[in-house]
């Protein structure tokens, strides 16, 4: 950890520090509204990060969409965790979910994108908002106007983020300056080329032009889920049922005149 | 044609960390749960990106399971949150610190009632401190 | 020693009382008021065995028999066997102890009737007789010491029999503590003995005594003095006599048996037993004689003014014990007379046991009738009310006072003769003149205070304290019968055994004691002591029967002396200020150290983890987010560690 190291990593450290400061500053404190300066600083941090850390891909449209979705997701996430109003926070979370679904689409996962929207935005968010409304006191709750241990939490979180980003940066450095593995497929282990030995043959795309084209289709995912992971799917279904029963059992009966 | 894996990893990690930050700072139980879901988003994005990079469906299948488990978790957590709310009438997580150490002062040490020199029969002082017995109890023992 | 003595007979003497003690202690609740039957049975068995041992050929002719007991301990070269030793001195002591204790047990069955703790009393009594028999039977100094302590323990238990009475508890404690002082000296003496001789067996020690005395005369003297310190504690010699008058808080049978007849004579017995050692330490013998004389005189002086009947008798016991030690010390005069002196003391011990037990039991009978009132000022003229008690008490008083031809007369006469011999023989004639004067004055005072007590109790107008109630009549047969039985030896045994030389010849078989040779009757001494005794009795009659005004006048005229005597020379107060109070201060200092040093240290040791816990306490605040934060920090730390690896 020397001056040398800081000099070589300043592109990473600057947006990180700015983002940390902005988030710590924006945390709810005694019901005061979030300062605009902090918001601007957060935006600047996101901008810096996008400028310094992210590399545009070869295709223009795809890159533009990526930056749009990623920016939206991160800004919405920041707004969500600093929101004073839980309903707004839930709505910001919905926006995060939508943006992430957009990123899923860009990554050839249309089924997951749709499923996530349906499950999260359609079901979970609604349920959350419902509960929030149900449990809502008159006026803003005091515990939404303040935050627990914001400084330490920000420090720990961004320490972790910094660590992860440094690792990612080093990894990119090792695998070349063209943006890592972004351009092509990762090597599939040699033994897996033999379909007999591959533990998940249905989940693996053949390393051919047709295979690459087939990537991301619902058909492929369906074959994988109901082929290789059939038992896991069944168990997941069982889990859902158990969770349903559990929720019904745990959730309190409506007392007279109460929630 | 494909997105840059690295970019997605960065976005995923940022989402994960921000979810964690929300979990650590927000006092509203529901917001804490939402933050945890956001952490899951970060992880899902990571998996999907790797799935694309590796050219197989394993990451996507895993993400599908994450979706399932997240749905279960959301249902259960909401039920629990409702139960907690019924108990205390608040969603404040700081209301639920019963298992923590109470921030109590050190117990005060009682003065020893050592015998005076005028007393006829000296008593040995017991090692350590006598347990405090309420007066009505000592009266009942006699 | 040609044929072995009957082992069973010998061992039954201590074991029969022990068996009754154990049975009563374990199953006392079953026997209840019938517990005394066991004790009396055990003691009777012991008495008959002792009598059989006494008349056995081996005992009466030889110099003693040692019965090998089980090995008790073996430490290096030192081997201790639980042997028992039977010789003439032992046999005499055993007979006396078992005889008196049997009578006392019978008496106690009447006296203790209706007392809570009845079985406990008889268990302790049996245990005492066992311990006393073993003390007498022991063949080495260690066993002697062990049972020396055991009789002290029984004495403690019995003085404190009414332990709920504070005065009794305090008296028991006092007796125990004062005895510890003597026992400390005794123990030191035994240690020194072991260091010097390398063995603790009587025979070996006495055999080597001459040689060792030539090499280390000082050592022998020190050993003898230390042993005598032990005897002073047990036999209540000044200044360690203070416990005995207080010991009268115990039940009267206990006073009669333990604090008059048997246990307190253990010191005399021990010194007599160690005669072969003491003859090599003339200095120690002179000290013994001096302490004995001083004790005899002071105790007699203190006994003159006491109003508590039992205390009078207690001081009389102290005084008579002093006389015995005076006799023992007189063995220094010349080698020829040594045996006579020791024999005289043992003889006095023997006769004293009977008449002093008789007197105490008589006092107990009075106390029983008077509803536990023992202050002589509150009753008088009981001779018509309690004729049997009166007659037997008179017998005891006459014997104690040395009335001519009764037991006490003969034995005291022999002791005085031994002392008088020192006035015209040997190298310390001047010293012995003083001792003889002390002995004679003691005899005079003894006769006086004995009959003072007798006259105050049984003569004058008949007065009965109100506490007596319907008890004010003669005691039951179980109490008067032992009195009458005891009166016989109290009157006659001295005359039967003393002047005939029978006792001296018999005792002469004991190892270390030569034969007395021709037994002389000391007509001059007899005349003097008879005159002194009669003068004392007459004085008491004059003061307390003929003209009671004289006593009052005497009290006024000699007020300082009177108060000195009444308050027991202020010895208790002196001890309180010199010994007890400084110990209190020492204890207080210890208490302060305990509270402010040791406790402070302990509190500090407890305080440190308390502080650490207090410092770490906020970490465990029960908030989920705090724990999650620590997890996040830990995760970041792991990541950092992996990066920097």
Tally of separate helices of chain B: 4
CA-atom Rg of chain C in angstroms:
30 Å
Q: How far is the N terminus from the C terminus of chain C?
A: 97 Å
CATH fold name of one domain in chain B = Helix Hairpins
User: N-to-C SSE series of chain C?
Assistant: HHHEEEEHHHHHHHHHHHHHHHHHHHHHHH
User: What is the CATH architecture assignment of one domain in chain B?
Assistant: Orthogonal Bundle
- Output mean pLDDT of chain B: 78
Radius of gyration of chain B: 30 Å
- Note the overall shape of chain B: elongated
- Helical segment count of chain C: 26
Which bin fits the share of residues in helices of chain B?
A: 55-70%
What's the shape of chain C?
A: globular
**Main sheet makeup of chain C:** 2 strands, antiparallel
Backbone structural class of chain B: mainly alpha
Distance between the termini of chain B: 93 Å
Strand content of chain B: under 5%
Structure, explained:
The complex is a heterotrimer of chains A (259), B (142) and C (645). Helix content of chain A is 68%, strand content 0%. Chain A is mainly alpha-helical and 259 residues long. Chain A has 2 domains: 7-184, Four Helix Bundle (Hemerythrin (Met), subunit A), CATH 1.20.120; 185-259, no CATH class. The longest helix of chain A has 25 residues, at 110-134. With 142 residues, chain B is an all-alpha fold. Chain B has a domain at 2-96: Helix Hairpins, CATH 1.10.287. Chain B is 60% helix and 0% strand. The longest helix of chain B is centred in the middle third of the chain and has 31 residues, at 58-88. Chain B is elongated, with a radius of gyration of 30 Å. Mean pLDDT of chain B is 78; it is low at 113-117. A two-stranded antiparallel ribbon of chain C has the order 1-4. A two-stranded antiparallel ribbon of chain C has the order 2-3. In chain C, a hairpin with a 2-residue loop joins strand 2 and strand 3. In chain C, helix 11 (252-261) runs antiparallel to helix 16 (335-369) and helix 22 packs across helix 23 (548-557). The termini of chain C are far apart. The relative contact order of chain C is 0.08. At the A-B interface, helix 4, helix 5, helix 6, helix 7 and helix 10 of A face helix 1, helix 2 and helix 3 of B.
